[in-house]
Amino acid sequence: MRRLIRNAEIVTMNKEEEVFVGDLLIEDGRIAEIAPRIDTHADQVMDATGKTMIPGFVQTHIHLCQTLFRGQADDLELLDWLRKRVLPLEAAHDEDSLYYSAMLGIGELIAGGTTSIVDMETVHHTEAAFRAMAESGIRALSGKVMMDHGEGVPPALMEDTATSIQKSVQLLEKWHNYDNGRLRYAFCPRFVVSCTEELLIQVRDLAEKYDVMIHTHASENKGEIELVEKERGMRNVLYLDKIGLASPRLILAHCVWLNDAERQVIRERGVKVSHCPGSNLKLASGYAEIPQLHACDAKVSLGADGAACNNNLDMFQEMRLAALIQKPLHGPTSMPAREVFRMATLGGAEAMGMADEIGSLEVGKKADLAILNLNSFHSSPYVGVDPISRLVYSAKSSDVETTIIDGKVVMDKKVMKTMDKDKVIRESNRAIRRLLDRTAKEDALGTHA
């Protein structure tokens, strides 16, 4: 199908960061032409007069398995949040609940203009999440979480090393490069605290063998770092480097508490960092020193984390927070809007290893984009305003009207095209009720830990 979008304000994010009013032609899922005016035949013409078109957001740290837990673990510190609420709820998941948790999260992401994610699932039923990703049209790099070590882990989530590896490889061989690469697999050891060294070393070798990414957490919380130092004799990033995991394949979520030696490892090894300001603030973990990471040429992108700790998956909020939280300490010019918007688009594409395919609106790239209506009280006036600054500081997820992934319209005029919104919300409420009943019974029997 040839789809022509006419007369939009196009925020390209090409090398020149051009913004102009014009047309964009989609053919066979890719951008065929961008110009002030395109005169050609098209199977469908979409009028975007007065609207703003942007590259689809790329969120590099998401937990779709936790969308059902929104509001269930508020006002707790990370390790308590994890051990007392989130891990028991993850252990209670069944195939149906995980499917609707993923669908609920994907619906929110698409509605807010996010077209690509780096996702980490839970230990079991990951197939259901991949099924949701396949049906919904989202672009994703995802994998089952891996856990073979640690205290306070529900028995249902504790794996032996061989089983964790076996199940991960089975999922990889089935889902990696599904739908012409729209879905890809990543190995997802949860974090050093929950993984043996044997598991991490096998992940390192398998990621190289299959040429896939590794997605994990690191240095989110001081208590976590103390545990890693106690068990492994050094800080997170230094330990990951010691065992050969620090490489361009590695995406590290959070990196709130880094020292100079760890920043040097990140720069020298080409490790990718996913900054999650909303989650880090809510859990009182702190906030990553992004200006220092940028100063050493680290690759930094943005993610909302999970709905259990945020409590939303809104890239507009993450952009605004990412820009604002650095300014009191580093000054008003420390995180300019254009830098933040790049983190939300091209930065995420780089983290996924797809900068030549997504992250900007350029001829030949995949047609992943969102169209916004910014003709609102909160985003006006616009005369003389930098369009990218307007997107970072004024726009909201509710401004997104249309989302296109791989050239396919997955939301149009705020109507979801790949899922039944009412059914997803209805079934999500049924599912969380079931999980809460299960965890209450486990609490009564004392069998969580």
From TrEMBL:
Gene3D superfamilies: Metal-dependent hydrolases, Urease, subunit C, domain 1. GO terms for molecular function: deaminase activity; hydrolase activity, acting on carbon-nitrogen (but not peptide) bonds, in cyclic amidines; metal ion binding. This is Cytosine/adenosine deaminase. Residues 52-410 form the Amidohydrolase-related domain. PANTHER family: AMIDOHYDROLASE-RELATED DOMAIN-CONTAINING PROTEIN, AMINOHYDROLASE SSNA-RELATED. InterPro entries: Amidohydro-rel, Metal-dep_hydrolase_composite, Metal_Hydrolase, MTA/SAH_deaminase. Keywords: Hydrolase, Metal-binding, Zinc. Transmembrane segments: none annotated. It comes from Marininema halotolerans. The keyword Zinc applies. The keyword Hydrolase applies.
